[in-house]
From TrEMBL:
Keywords: DNA-binding, Transcription, Transcription regulation. This is HTH-type transcriptional repressor SmtB. It comes from Clostridium magnum DSM 2767. It comes from the Bacteria. Residues 1-93 form the HTH arsR-type domain. NCBIfam families: HTH_metalloreg (NF033788).
Amino acid sequence: MSQQEISVRIFKALGHPIRYKIVKFLYDGPKCVCKLNEDIEFSQANLSQHLKILKEAGILSSEKMGMNIHYRISSEEIKKIIDSVDKFVMSYSDNSK
């Protein structure tokens, strides 16, 4: 897979509102999938599908701890992408008034 294809895969994964919400929820640190299920009000199957897409794009990683699976943002670079988009949105919304 080329670098461009990987970049597109990352942007596609982040481009879905539920997946973006998941990443924002995990921004401050790892959380159990049970906490994600409480915050992201969708079926377990739906949530699992979104988590799978985020993992396949390299955005999230997971770790089994006892009976639970904890998800985390895989890299500080992903946080930088989120920060850059948030900064751009603030600037864009200020300039479009």
